[in-house]
Amino acid sequence: MSESLKTKAYEQIKSRILRCEYEPMSFLDVSAIADEMGISRTPVRDAVSLLEQEELVQVLPRHGIMVLGISPGLINDIISTRKIVEPYAARTAALKADEDIMTGMREVFCDPRLDIAALIDEDQKLHRYIVSCTENTYIIRMMDRIFNNNYRLMLYGSRMPGVFETSNQEHIDLIDAIIERNPDRAEKRMLNHLSHSEQTAYEAAGILMKK
From CA 184, how far away is CA 94, in angstroms rounded? Predict the structure, then answer.
């Protein structure tokens, strides 16, 4: 029972951090969260310990539990790692990806009815699936942490005009290269997409630091 409560607290707090309902640099109130969820503080504290391991929060003695911010240094770490891993993953996906899955994703990105929130979710699904094509457990685990922080950046980046129109077309072009089984083209398009994402990420960080 206690394990299920910890999982419930972990999933809810993590979701709120990723969706910026708990803002970067804000402090979490364990008692308030526990009361809201109708549980004791113990599973909330246990959940916080897991989130600290994932580098989403930091426990500061005598101050409390802070949601970690997104700094230019962190963005550099995220983007530089993505530029190393994801072009390789795209090459691999061009050889291994399930064509039906990729075709289904393409149809989603071509749907004009999708709102920004849905597009962000689909962006995450696409990039995570491409990385999963490496079939490398260590890479997948590492990228999971990176995608978590990237999700927060995307939410703030969505406030900038025209960002998702460009990104959406880049996703479609990337998917086409993978469906065509063209590793060179998939690698190139992924790198091009990440280069554009880098500028958006720094602009999003600027919005965060002004808050």
Answer: 9
Tens of pLDDT, residue by residue, the chain (211 residues): 467 899 999 999 999 999 889 988 999 999 999 999 999 999 999 999 999 998 899 999 888 999 998 888 888 899 999 999 999 999 999 999 999 999 999 999 999 888 888 888 999 999 999 999 999 999 999 999 999 988 888 887 666 666 677 888 999 999 999 999 999 999 999 999 999 888 877 776 665 555 5
Domains and CATH numbers, the chain: 2-67 (1.10.10.10), 72-210 (1.20.120.530)
184 C-beta neighbours (distance < 10 Å), count: 11
Query: What predicted TM-score, i.e. pTM, was given to this entire model?
Result: 0.85
For the chain, give the number of residues.
211
